Amino acid sequence: MLISKKPRPMARSRRHKLRWLVLAVFTVLFMVIVANDSWWQAVLGFLFPAQDQVLHPRAPLWVFVVEHLRIVSVSSALSIALGLPLGILITRKIGRSLQPMATHLTSLAQTFPPVAVLALAVPAFGFGFKPTVFALFLYGLFPIVASTAVALNGIPATVIDSASGVGMTPLQRLWLVELPLGAPVILGGIRISVMINIGTAMIGAVIGAGGLGSPVIAGLVRFNPAFILEGTLPAAFLAILASGIISTLELSLTPRPEPAVSG
Predict the structure, then answer these.
(1) Distance between CA 166 and CA 164 in Å, rounded?
(2) How far apart, in whole angstroms, are the C-alpha atoms of residue 86 and residue 251?
(3) For residue 168, which phi and psi values (nearest 5 degrees)?
(4) Strands 261-262, 2-3: pairing kind
(5) Where are the extended beta strands (E) located within the chain?
(6) Where do the TM regions start and end (predicted)?
(7) For residue 220, is it within any domain?
């Protein structure tokens, strides 16, 4: 009997720990970099010597980063809080007939330009944080609903039948079988949703929400490329870090392959 070579569980666990360690190091490095305005002053001053100001005067860079994280975290949490239950509901017998309508409505929310959604939200929520969160919440909803529906619909019927056969209730089957098996695909949708929110949150500065869009908008108004880099570089690092963290979580939750036996 021959057993083909597959990644050993211990080696797989070590790789996951190494990925988390690398992500932790990059996170700390990012926090140190955004907390030192003098470093940004020196680098941006060197790159753009003709500019009188190379850092946005409203606040230190770390304040913009915290504002941006606040907008993204609240809007993403709302998208997950509604999108995940909605995705589950439309895969159940009671809500399966709603699946086409839910999919069309959530996808329709992404067809509107972000600025248009902000303009429509301002009369209802005023300026600042609330309309920005509302717009990002709508934008982040579709990937979560779609990935949850795909993940749960993709579980083989034999697995569902086996779980029912051992006496699991529908709720136990969902919690102990379907969600764990579908977790990697669901997390993939959440990762896309968070990436959308990190990028789109930049436009919130137009209506006074703050965040990393503030120096970018100021740079566009004043023709100051240093301001634009001050906002875009941390936003790009944030997106890379968030993608890395959620991707590593996806890999950690992916079922381990069983060794193939032949001979």
Answers:
(1) 5
(2) 24
(3) -70, 140
(4) antiparallel
(5) 2-3, 261-262
(6) 20-48, 68-90, 111-129, 135-155, 175-196, 202-221, 233-253
(7) yes
* Interatomic CA distance for residues 198 and 203, integer angstroms: 10
Smallest CA-to-CA distance from 85 within 16, 149, 4 is with: 149
Write out the chain's pLDDT in tens, 263 residues: 444 455 566 677 777 788 889 999 999 999 999 999 999 999 999 999 988 889 999 899 999 999 999 999 999 999 999 999 999 998 888 877 777 777 777 777 667 777 777 777 888 888 888 889 988 898 888 889 989 998 998 888 898 888 888 888 889 899 899 998 999 899 999 999 999 899 889 888 888 888 999 999 999 998 999 999 999 999 999 999 999 998 888 887 776 655 554 44
CATH number, residue 242: 1.10.3720.10
Provide Rg for the chain, Cα atoms: 23
Q: How many CB atoms lie within 10 A of CB 132?
A: 33
Residue 262 bridge partners (DSSP): 2
Assess if residue 203 is contained within a domain.
yes
Burial of 248 (0-12, 13-18, 19+ CB in 10 A): middle
Overall domain count for the chain: 1
pTM attached to this predicted model: 0.84
Would you give the end-to-end CA distance of the chain in angstroms?
Answer: 5
- In angstroms, the CA 224 to CA 56 distance is 10
Range 134-163 burial, b when 16+ CB lie within 10 A, else e:
bbbbbbbbbbbbbbbbbbbeebeeeebeeb
